[in-house]
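ok trying again, last paste got cut off:
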Amino acid sequence: MQKLRILHQDPHLVVVEKPAGLLVHPPEDAAIRKYSAGSPDMVRILRNQTGFHVYPVHRLDRATHGVMVMAFSSAVASALQAQFGNRTIEKEYLLLCRGWTADSGLWDSPLESEKSDSGEVSAETEYETLHRFELPIASKRHPTSRFSLVRASPRTGRFHQIRRHFKGASHPLIGDSVHGDGRQNRIWRELTGASRLYLTAWKLGFRHPVSNEHLQFRARFTGAWHTVFERAGFCPLLQEFSPREYPLRNHAG
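nice, full thing came through this time. structure:
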């Protein structure tokens, strides 16, 4: 049975790093559930790994990698969900997208609800561009291709929210097979040797519902992400934790 990387565990909750490609829990849709029968999901894996029943508190898309918290009781799950609801949870994502994004901004375009009869729902995504770079690979109209490494903080939690907001701004995420640019996806598949979505739930911070201690956790960046950082000439981890200014040039837009 597959095992997950546990970042923190106590009698009340567990914080875990979700791999890309893994479902959080079995899908609600019967047809999809039948199609994926027998496939592992995080709830089942963590139940076997910890020996406790776990309660999902939030979700990440199947294609998204990153930090998640789950509770060992319905009461703790409710308390954590309340923090998500009142937006006191600290959530940061790192993503790679097409084009050069603005220095920072807030996208608040409503998105169509995943429930077909609910119409549009409000959605807000705050972002900050960490680094812009250019590769000598011809695009449709230009001799080079431009990309941005961006930190995004969703204020709401809509289905594919970050992916849809960036697509709507003409900056689709690299590796996004649903909302992305197929040509750019192929370029990065060849550069990295990996087929994946470049979206990671990088940081998660919250108040422990029982101890009231402030906890913060970070995901690892492995494999293809390292190739991205090498091609970009920039690593967000060095920028954040090094006492010196990161020496490589950051292309300005």
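cool. The two ends are 47 Å apart (CA to CA). Confidence is low (pLDDT under 50) at residues 30-36, 242-253.
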